[in-house]
């Protein structure tokens, strides 16, 4: 843990709130302190009300914003004295408490108030920072956690037993702070939850946080985690079929398609291969709020049915703790620990799977360190259940709208660096899919910077590279649901009597043979797709209506069309549907070079502009037009359609 306060940079953050923003970003950029929206910060600012009367506002980080990238607009200004007065009440229901929090905000455009705002209000210092430091959790999450914290810090910190968030923890802290808070107090440790630091300047509060965590790290250094041996799997051993089968089972338990991200690095494998894994991993999360992302415990091995039954038992045994009717959450695991797979994280989106993985990666470190210190101990099952089924969390579920059409599904698009392929990637992502783009162009790798996109540079004519790409897809997202076969070339215009064999064969390799390889290798993954596999072939108008000078292109696309029809016959029993689109004159694609465009127009005795709208509707067809229909053909509107051939050409007289 390093003190990264930079005086020159801090000086550019002029006012009190800006100073809080700077310190927040320093804290948020260290995953050993906070993860994914965790932690919160605040500053108390004197600011007159609309009548010019003096008042103190607590600017507290809004719920859901990320400390690492927080801005001034992400802080909610609330009436300080009003929050403090609320803690004098004996009881408040969750809904009453939430209403009062919202009512204390003085800016209607502000983000939702942090659920821990009242704790910030109770501490008198100007700046208050809260993190979930791994080092502190590794100490509090042991049987003697309270005694160890007191041994480390003495009277410099106040220790608060775990209490469920909301009004209960604020009420408890108000009582403890009133009795124990002194001018010498440097921080507050909430057992199995986190650490508070504070100061009259942002720098003081930040450096106090760093110093407190450093003390915890120094204590843990006396009990290092043993560097146990790990059995690394053969990196060449295929996992894609196993992962797709696991994803299918988890998706069935979840009631919806899920993304699976596999992490088989040395750290994950070492933890998953621990001989005491069945004990240490089943105690519970590092803090109860992690249950929302990771479930209470991970699944060990691959028996999804057993995990589901255990979760249903857990719900049945605890549901009567609530004073309102509960809706059971899906019983699918969010984290899987397997000695040969390492850690597999699941989520309804790629981002959810990424968050679950990062949280549990830190949980593994906390568990290992706590075990080296003594033994790992989470909060009670009842307390974790109460957070998982907190009234406010249940209310969120009722407010959730329908997920995007392809949420949790994975699509693969070939020839995705430009034109129709790139447009297909965009259309599929817009519908919620995680999308993989293949292309020989290295630009494919950086086409989009987002967790639901994977770009792989790949020569589609290489069987070895195609298989490696499918393996990478399965390890990144878990399997495959949709396949858009778009990669292709349009060679220079040549008459049949002048056709070089090498050019003919190259066209066939790219436009036909590569698609056979990919369809053959993808079949087993598509067969395991939770909602059944879908394939869309980007064909051509030249299939039903070839043109002069395009023998190699027309023949390759016609052969691909026949391949698709045969596959539709064979794969129908697996629930896989295959349909073809036949675009014509889509000029914003890579195959339409100026040379090709002029040559084709000349063949028809047209100018380039006339050629672009040479259809019965006199309209130009774009890549997005084709992509949108390709995406829809993977959706429910075409659920009972296979082997269809649909023109996307504005109406071509020869086709009609």
Automatic annotation (TrEMBL):
Domain Class II aldolase/adducin N-terminal: start-end pairs: 19-220
Keywords recorded for this protein, A-Z: Oxidoreductase
Domain of life, source organism: Bacteria
Classification via InterPro entries: Aldolase_II/adducin_N, Aldolase_II/adducin_N_sf, NAD(P)-bd_dom_sf, Sc_DH/Rdtase_CS, SDR_fam
Single annotated GO MF: oxidoreductase activity
Keyword Membrane carried by entry: no
Annotated NCBIfam families: PRK08324.2-4
Family: Belongs to the short-chain dehydrogenases/reductases (SDR) family.
Protein name: Short chain dehydrogenase
């Amino acid at each position: 843990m390093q003190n990264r306060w930079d005086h020159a940079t801090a000086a550019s953050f002029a006012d009190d709130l800006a100073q809080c923003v700077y310190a927040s970003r320093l804290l948020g950029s260290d995953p050993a302190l906070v993860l994914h929206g965790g932690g919160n910060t605040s500053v108390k600012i004197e600011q007159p009300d609309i009548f010019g009367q003096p008042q103190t506002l607590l600017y507290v980080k809004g719920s859901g914003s990320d400390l690492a990238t927080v801005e001034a607009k992400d802080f909610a200004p609330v009436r300080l004295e009003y929050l403090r007065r609320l803690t004098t009440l004996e009881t408040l229901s969750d809904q009453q408490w939430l209403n009062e929090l919202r009512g204390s905000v003085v800016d209607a455009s502000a983000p939702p108030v942090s659920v821990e705002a009242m704790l910030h209000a109770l501490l008198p210092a100007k700046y208050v920072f809260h993190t979930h430091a791994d080092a502190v959790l590794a100490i509090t999450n042991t049987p003697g956690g309270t005694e160890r914290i007191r041994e480390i810090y003495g009277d410099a910190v106040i220790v608060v037993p775990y209490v469920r968030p909301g009004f209960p923890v604020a009420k408890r802290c108000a009582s403890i702070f009133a009795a124990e808070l002194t001018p010498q107090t440097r921080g507050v440790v909430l057992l199995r939850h986190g650490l508070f630091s504070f100061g009259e300047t942002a720098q003081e509060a930040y450096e106090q946080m760093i110093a407190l965590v450093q003390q915890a790290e120094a204590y843990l250094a006396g009990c290092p985690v043993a560097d146990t041996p790990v059995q690394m799997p053969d990196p060449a051993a295929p996992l894609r079929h196993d992962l797709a089968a696991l994803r299918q089972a988890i998706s069935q338990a979840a009631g919806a398609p899920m993304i699976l991200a596999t992490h088989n690095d040395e750290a994950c494998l070492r933890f998953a291969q621990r001989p005491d894994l069945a004990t240490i991993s089943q105690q519970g999360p590092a803090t109860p709020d992690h249950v929302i992302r990771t479930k209470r415990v991970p699944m060990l091995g691959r028996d999804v049915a057993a995990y589901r039954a255990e979760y249903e038992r857990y719900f049945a045994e605890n549901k009567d703790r609530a004073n309102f009717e509960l809706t059971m959450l899906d019983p699918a695991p969010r984290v899987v620990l397997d000695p040969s797979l390492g850690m597999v994280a699941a989520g309804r989106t790629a981002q959810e799977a990424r968050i679950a993985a990062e949280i549990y990666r830190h949980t593994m470190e906390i568990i290992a360190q706590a075990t080296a210190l003594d033994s790992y101990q989470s909060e009670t099952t009842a307390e974790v259940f109460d957070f998982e089924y907190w009234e406010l969390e249940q209310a969120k579920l009722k407010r959730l709208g329908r997920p995007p059409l392809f949420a949790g599904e994975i699509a693969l698009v070939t020839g995705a660096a430009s034109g129709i392929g790139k447009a297909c990637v965009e259309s599929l992502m817009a519908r919620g899919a995680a999308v993989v783009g293949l292309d020989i162009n290295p630009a494919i790798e950086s086409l989009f910077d987002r967790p639901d996109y994977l770009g792989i540079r790949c020569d589609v004519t290489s069987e070895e590279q195609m298989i490696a790409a499918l393996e990478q897809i399965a390890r990144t997202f878990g399997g495959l649901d949709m396949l858009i076969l778009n990669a292709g070339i349009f060679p220079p215009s040549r008459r049949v009597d002048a056709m070089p064999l090498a050019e003919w064969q190259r066209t066939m390799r790219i436009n036909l043979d590569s698609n056979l390889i990919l369809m053959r290798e993808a079949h087993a993954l598509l067969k395991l797709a939770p909602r059944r596999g879908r394939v869309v072939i980007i064909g051509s108008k030249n299939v039903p209506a070839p043109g002069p000078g395009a023998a190699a292109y027309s023949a390759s696309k016609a052969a691909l069309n026949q391949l698709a029809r045969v596959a539709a016959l064979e794969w129908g029993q697996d629930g896989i549907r295959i349909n073809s689109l036949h675009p014509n004159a889509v000029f914003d694609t890579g195959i339409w070079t100026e040379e090709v465009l002029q040559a084709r127009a000349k063949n028809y005795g047209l100018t380039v502009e006339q050629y672009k709208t040479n259809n019965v509707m006199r309209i130009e067809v774009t890549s997005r037009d084709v992509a949108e229909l390709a995406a829809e053909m993977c959706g429910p509107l075409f659920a009972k359609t296979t082997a269809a051939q649909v023109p996307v050409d504005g109406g071509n007289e020869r086709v009609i």
